[in-house]
Amino acid sequence: MVDETAAAYGLFQVSFAWLEQELAAAIYHLRHLDDPKQFDGLLRDRFSDKIKYFKEELQQANLGVDGEEALARLKELSKWRNERTHARIEIISASGYQFALYSKTGHRLEMNPESLRARTNEVLTVIHLLNDVARLHRTATGISKELEELLGTFIEPSETTESE
Q1: Which among 140, 139, 83 has a CA at the least distance from the CA of 115?
Q2: For a FRET experiment, which of 67, 125, 135, 144 has its CA 20 to 30 Å from that of 160?
Q3: Model confidence over 102-119: pLDDT tens digits?
Q4: Domain range spanning residue 22?
Q5: 126 near 77, Cβ under 8 Å?
Q6: pTM, 2 dp
Q7: How far apart are CA 138 and CA 136, in angstroms?
Q8: In this predicted model, what pLDDT tens digit does every residue of 128-153 receive, in sequence order?
């Protein structure tokens, strides 16, 4: 039988993999990419690089609160996951199915079903934020293009001043 903590950790890891995919998709949309090979390239990049790319794209897009909140949560989730993925492990039962994780500095890391479910919910929240950011960017880009087209019909090229 699978330990409840191990099952919750597995669900967290699957959710985190989905988060990584959605982060790559958000970057793909923010960069206005259209080649699936570019998406595949983003998927292969390290998570820390994806966070860096996302931050750069957010700064250029100037999308505000949702993007900044997603970025802060991405960094925190990445740190939490990395501590556990690269932890020192101690088997604490004779059967080998119970274990404890320790940080590089030697303190025991929290690993229980409740905290893992809470982290999984946090991952799902960030996925929704990333989708909102991508949707907001697509909407803003569409409005901007429509305005350019609309304003372009009212401005004649010969109307520019000679000082320009």
Answers
A1: 83
A2: 144
A3: 999 999 999 899 999 999
A4: 4-142
A5: yes
A6: 0.79
A7: 6
A8: 989 888 887 777 777 766 667 667 65
